[in-house]
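How it folds:
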Amino acid sequence: MKKILLALFSFIFVFSIVGCTTKTETKKEEKVIKMGFVPLKNSEKLVEDLKPISDYLSERLGVKVEAFTASNYIGVVEGLGSGSVDFGIIPPFSSLLAQKQSSAKPILTSKGKTGKPGYTAELYVRKDSGIKSLQDVKGKKVAFVDPSSSSGYIYPGAMLVEAGLNLDKDISYQFSGGHDKSLQLLLNKDVDVIATFDGVEDRYAKDFPQAKTDIQKLATSDMIPGIMVTTSSKMDKELQDKLEKALRDVENDPKMKELFTKMFSITGFTDVDQDAYKKVEATAKVMNVDLDKVK
């Protein structure tokens, strides 16, 4: 009887070890691709909203894709450099930083609602502010989004500089950390002017319905080249090719196209025209921003 019990115990023990080993090996083999975004809204909410996109790409790439939102813009740039973020769908200035600092590779440019690869930055004010021109911004409180934001700092800041304002002397400003947060500051009358993207009142209409009636554009920037799909230099070529194909196909998938349009005003993806991004670097120079030193 003892021999039978000992044999049974040994069998159960060995089976348990094998089972644990199998689970551990399976866990180790599961590959996860991190998709990075800048903080357009509350991080947890953005990741939740991005799940259908993550699921779509997981199916197309054959590996699990998880969304990642950094607490600031440079967080995605650093993630691409370290390889903790495999690819980012990020603004052009952030992409240029990633290319400069870690040899990240831009593979696609997004197309906006017009079908062209670009969008504009805007300076918005409240309708009752009395601010009618860029010169009227002197002495006012301004909310930018992030030092690495194309539409939330680089381009609108350059508009103010080119209008003759010294950002350090003629205005007081802060970085809100998100386009939605800037909009909230403006509506709450905590600031007089915000720098953001065109259509911010539509993007956040659900959270801030009063924006539709209470704010107006003060100035519009030159065209900013489209949001860029930028991969880490550590991402293998085969996966890059699959990612590029999957995102190009978004335009032919009504459900995905509607989702990208609703969330990011992106209607599709096209080839990167690197020359178009020279304007971004030139605009950064107006703001005395050194791509090698932004951290």
